[in-house]
Specification:
The chain is mostly beta strands. Helices cover 11% and strands 41% of the residues. It has a single domain, classed as SH3 type barrels (Roll), CATH 2.30.30. The structure holds zinc ion. The site of zinc ion (ZN) has 7 residues, from loops.
Length: 63
């Protein structure tokens, strides 16, 4: 399950060289923002599952 602000590390790097993406929106599609260049991309859950190597869960910042 992907949630907003999770960090997804892809198997293949983006053209900018970055491999880490931040989940910006979830739903039928997952919207990701590249941590390297800031571009957005929409992937279906199946596509993301295939491309993702690891997922780091967002750290909750509760005080
Ligand atoms: Zn990029």
């Amino acid at each position: 399950m992907y949630e907003i602000n999770d960090i997804v590390v892809m198997k293949k790097p983006h053209p900018c060289g970055g491999k880490a993406w931040t989940v910006a929106r979830t739903g039928a599609d997952i919207k990701l923002q590249c941590n390297g260049c800031g571009r957005f991309v929409n992937l279906t859950r199946d596509e993301l599952k295939k491309r993702a190597k690891t997922v780091e869960k967002a750290v909750e910042e509760n005080e």
